[in-house]
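Data availability (excerpt). The following record was deposited with the supplementary files.
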Amino acid sequence: MFESLATQGRERVHTGLAGIDSAKLKKLRNSQLKECFNLIDEMRHKLEFVARIKGISFVDDAASRSTLSTWYALETIEGSVIWIANGAPSSPNMVSNFRRLRLLVEKKVKMIVCIGDSGLYESVFGDLVSNIIAVDSIGEAVNKAFYSHLEDVKILFSPAVENGVSFDEQGDTFKHEVNEL
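Predicted structure:
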C-alpha cells in the first residue's frame, strides 16, 4: 500500500489520510482502507505526472478550474514553472480572484501560456512575468512551453478558469500533445 502512496503526490496522500480518519471513525477494516487508497489512484487530471522529455517534466492538472486549485498546484510543484492556463478576459471580479496567486507566480512562474485571451493574466501578472503569451490551442501551448528555451522548469497545465470544454477532454488533449513531442 505505501509504495503506491509514494507515487500519488502530496494532495492524494492528504485526501487519503483524511479518508482514513473518517474510515477509522466508521470502524472500517484495513483491507477496506487499502481499497479506498486504490480508488484515489484513479483520480485523473489532478497533479498527474505525464512525461519527462529532455529533462522537462509535464504535469496535468486540468481538473483545476479555480484559482484556489491552481494555487495548490503551484504551491505543490517544486522549482520553476511554465504555467499553461485557460485564457480569460480581464474583469474586476476575476482580477481580485487571481491576485491571491501573485506571490506564488512571482516566486515560481517563468512564463504563462494562455489558451485564448491573455488579458486577465497580463493585467494581474504582467509586472511579475515578462513572458505571457496567448495561443489558440493546447497543442500550440505545449509546443510554445517546451520550445521556450527555459531551463530547469516544469510545465504545468492548470486551467484556473472554465472555458466550456470538460477538464477530461482538455487533460486528455494535453497528455496527447505532450506524448507527440
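Summary of structural features: The beta strands are 48-53, 56-60, 80-86, 109-115, 132-135, 153-157.
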